[in-house]
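Marked as duplicate of an earlier ticket. Keeping the data here for the record.
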Amino acid sequence: MNERGVNERGTNHPRHRNACEPGKVDAIIGCGSQPLCGLLWWLLILLMICQVPVSGLCESTSPRISFMPQWVPQAQFAGYMVAYDKGFYGNAGLDVEMRTGGPGKDCFASLSEESLTFCTGWLSTAIQKRASGERIVNLAQMLQRSGLLVVARAQSGIHTPEDLNGKRVGFWPGEFSVPGAACLRKHRLRVDVVPNYTTVTLFLKGPVDAIAAMWYNEYHMILNSGINPDELTVLRFPDMGVDFPEDGLYCREDAFLANPSMCVAFADASLKGWAYAFAHEEEALDIVMEYALRANTGTNRAHQRWMLARIKDLMLPAGEGRPMGILTRQDYERVGSELEKLSLIERLPRYDDFYKGRSADGDRNQTAGSRSR
């Protein structure tokens, strides 16, 4: 298999390259007249162009597009990996380059620089960027509930948000900092924020009193280190009044307006990948582990199985019956209103300008953006 993102389909296969050589055509048609053979030769080429799209000639009209998740390869992004490996993107006529995300790779910045077509990112961060003038749009809201936690050792005396005052707390920097900032402002907390990245070492070794963690990822890492759940204090962001659903699928507004069918096709194929991943978990884990091993993430299958199960819980909350990938107006305005109250944005962009995904009844919002931000 070629390196991820390399389109293995092409026109250089010997079957395609040699079938139409002039000498062979002469032999096939048995013609000795050069003018007549020349005419038949060009007619044959025209016929092949019109009737043989599998040669790649028709495929070349599809633009190369790129996708990068906001973090390293893991089950958090299983649906996209499955969509690529199972050919869902290709079947939709999309030529996709899969890029590897992770620390130091700002997906939204890459969108703004037009070096990336699609990415994932957190809803609160995307709203903040749109409100500041970055014309990005949400094509599908994958997570319907927040999986964000603050985890502390029970013996530390931290049991409520107010107990974090004056403590050293590990938070992710950059594009992942918005929910943490919202939580601190909401509860008027003054903490010593320590940047944290891909591990829970700061928490396990003791330099921080508490650490931000995702339910599907870092929390499970802490449990796997040998610490029992009853030895921990777990403060859930939704319980602290900061229920900001995280992962959504994004592109630039101008890209959407220029080619809405391509954007819709990518979102729909991605959702198809997620549905397949949840219905075929072991196969999905095989695909995830292949990507993770290539990226040397150091993960294991048991951890990825936990992650995939928790992601499913957050994408398809029990008892709601909401179609996958929906961003409701209520959720959008709830998050945006909280960001406004906490002065993290000046004004909430219009829902119809920001969200271009499907509604609960299956319709897709493709209205053009207005002058409002």
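See parent ticket for discussion. Residues 323 and 360 are 6 Å apart (CA to CA).
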